[in-house]
Amino acid sequence: MIARGSYRSHLLSRISKVHYNVAYAIFLALRVIKVTFHLSTSAEIQHALGVRLREQRLAQSLTQRELAQMAGLSLGALRKLESNGQCSLETLIRVAQALGLQEAMDDLFVLKRQSIAQMEQIDAVSRRRRAPRKKTS
User: Fold this and answer.
1) Helices (H), 33-115
2) CB neighbourhood size of 122 (10 A)
3) Could you give the C-alpha distances from 45 to 16, 37, 71, 113, in angstroms and in order?
4) Which residues does 61 contact at the CB level (< 8 Å), separation at least 6?
5) What is the pTM of this model?
6) DSSP state of 101
7) Do the Cβ atoms of 78 and 71 come closer than 8 Å?
8) How far, CA to CA in Å, does 79 sit from each of 63, 67, 97?
9) End-to-end distance of the chain based on CA atoms, in angstroms?
10) How far apart are CA 55 and CA 48, in angstroms?
11) Which phi and psi (to 5°) does residue 23 adopt?
């Protein structure tokens, strides 16, 4: 039989473990929620992209060293990208290609046509030409 005081401490330790596990599960679930870039600063967007690339690397069971070699980058450049998102556009593209994420970049900055008026305006812009030169006599 367990003494009353030890049973209570045993029960409290079990409850705290359960609470810890629930809190950890909530934390993991919140990490998975997509970051929206609508109201983020450029630093926040860079950081979020670095985190996403790190998660992709870990999902593929790659070390930083392995991914850096695959992408033709220095280990420091990859670490900097994953920690705060700071990198050149070329570095970002190399890492995305090494991770097989080319298709994820297909929809970046694609002009989205939503209405007929918008489509007509885009078409007119694409057909614009330089005005003819004035004839000088």
Assistant:
1) 42-59, 64-71, 75-84, 89-98
2) 13
3) 35, 6, 22, 25
4) none
5) 0.57
6) -
7) yes
8) 11, 10, 17
9) 114
10) 11
11) -60, -40
- Length of the chain, in residues: 137
Give the residue carrying structure tokens 């929620």: 33
- pLDDT by 10s per residue, the chain, length 137: 445 455 545 544 555 555 555 555 555 554 544 555 565 788 888 998 999 999 999 999 999 999 999 999 999 999 999 999 999 999 999 999 999 998 888 878 777 767 777 777 777 777 766 666 777 76
Amino acid occupying residue 82: E
Residue 1 has which token pair? 């039989």
Q: Please tell me the number of Cα atoms within 13 Å of 133 on its side-chain side.
A: 3
